[in-house]
Amino acid sequence: NAGVTQTPKFQVLKTGQSMTLQCAQDMNHNSMYWYRQDPGMGLRLIYYSASEGTTDKGEVPNGYNVSRLNKREFSLRLESAAPSQTSVYFCASSELQANTGELFFGEGSRLTVL
Amino acid sequence: DQQVKQNSPSLSVQEGRISILNCDYTNSMFDYFLWYKKYPAEGPTFLISISSIKDKNEDGRFTVFLNKSAKHLSLHIVPSQPGDSAVYFCAANRVEYGNKLVFGAGTILRVKS
To answer: pLDDT tens digit string along A96-105?
Structure first.
């Protein structure tokens, strides 16, 4: 049981380049999330998808787009990367009905923008 | 303005002693509070949670206390073990907004053997 799988684990980009972070979960969860982690800032929500076919902005959506491809997959795209987007990105999933807030996270994708 | 704050960036504790990690919040509408644990190069993992209608929840060596009047919660680890060394994130959730957690900045716990 893989849980939440993110690819790639590491990526270096130049300013202005684009890339897509991929995320897939095998727990049949309805909801999926993208967070970024920065030193001293904790984890901040970029986008989330409450269920297949829906997406919505989180706290820090600027510079990102998402696609909920199907129930399993939720991708995050940087159209024109900026150094401020250097961060560790985490994908997570949960059952929407589990209102306690328990999320299952992937291992993270470390992105550096030069 | 951070709704969830962890004011101690780091904490060092001797093995076998108690570790106390603190968290403050500003929004009285939160329904649940959670603690996540994170090892280097891994994703956060859920540790323990507490509903806003309770003041204590215990799970083995881990106990979370909630003081709603002070908008403060704490995680107690007794006894602390070297394997507990990790970053601990406090998080809060409002049910009506879905599981869109708001996280604190984290506290690095180091348990010395």
So the answer is: 666 677 899 9
